[in-house]
């Protein structure tokens, strides 16, 4: 009885209503709630626990939203193909313009397949300008300028080289190395002398 009396006193203290009035109002609120809810929910479903909506991991193929397709695309990334040694010109073909080719970036002459992060390095991504290029200098300078997309590190300071090393470590840990970037082949042979030049010398 002591607990009952305390509860009744607390109700009166906090609501300013008598216990009878409080419970009467509470009962009316419950009745109104059930009545209004019944207008939108069938009686059979009213007492069922809520069920979380299922999210499809296979978006409608007719949906043109690239953002949703990128977020919901759970298709495993294809195994990376080792390319061996390729030139700058050959590397430029892997810039995302051909959806059937992987996305490649070169750092300090080592080529990495970043296809697993297509949302970042693919067409329209925030780092798409690095794809298909040797990006060492640009990454060291945190630059998006086209003229910095090269491997010239001669004038960089220790801090900038450390930034590049951090980027390189990240790529080594996250992306497969698929090849090596080489300079364009240049002929070092001296051109042969013509017959007329030989006659003049004789």
TrEMBL record:
Pfam families: Cyt-b5 (PF00173). Its main location: endoplasmic reticulum. Signal peptide: none annotated. This is Cytochrome b5 heme-binding domain-containing protein. Keywords: Endoplasmic reticulum, Heme, Iron, Lipid-binding, Membrane, Metal-binding, Steroid-binding, Transmembrane, Transmembrane helix. It comes from Cannabis sativa. One of its GO terms (cellular component) is endoplasmic reticulum. The chain crosses the membrane at residues 20-41. PANTHER family: MEMBRANE-ASSOCIATED PROGESTERONE RECEPTOR COMPONENT-RELATED, NEUDESIN. Belongs to the cytochrome b5 family. MAPR subfamily. It is found in: Endoplasmic reticulum. One of its GO terms (molecular function) is steroid binding. Residues 86-182 form the Cytochrome b5 heme-binding domain.
